Amino acid sequence: MHIMELIERGVIPILYGDVVASDEGFSIISGDDIMLDLGSKLRPSASIFLTDVPGILDADGNVIKQLTNASVVNERGTRYIDVTGGLMRKIRSAMELARYTRTYLCAIWDLESISRILHGGEEPIKCTRFLPD
Question: Is residue 20 part of a domain?
């Protein structure tokens, strides 16, 4: 079934990167790139990057509530760098996506924050919102 058919039926897509066939044999398509491509075209009311942390964390481990391009971000403290570009790539994709839709990074288990975002209520407590400059 095409993704647009699912959206028209009220399904909220959860997407992730994967290995895909390419002219070179196989390539990795980043879930961040998928989010940016679909978000810029479909303009959803919100987009959420789901991770294993509650948001972008400062040096003391506290969630940074809002992030802009003007903010200083340093990836050296991250303990997990994935093969599709790590945290900085995700941040760059999220900042670009924020030009088209409300964009957040939240923990996948933070159902309260996810619900707040999806229902357009109060801002989530434990997520980072990306704001366009």
Answer: no
- What pLDDT shows up at residue 47? 93
Burial class (CB in 10 A: 0-12, 13-18, 19+), 76: exposed
Count CB atoms within 10 A of the CB of residue 50.
17
Domain assignment present for residue 120? The answer is yes
8 located within any domain: no
Pairing status of strand 66-67 against strand 128-130: parallel
Task: Please indicate, yes or no, if residue 107 is contained in any of the structural domains.
Answer: yes
Question: CB of 67 within 8 A of CB of 104?
Answer: no
Is 80 exceeded by the pLDDT of residue 57?
Answer: yes
Which two three-digit tokens encode residue 51? 């991770």
The residue type of 85 is: G
For the chain, the domain total comes to 1
Q: Please give the residue range of the domain that contains residue 37.
A: 32-130
Round to whole Å and give the CA distance between 66 and 129.
5
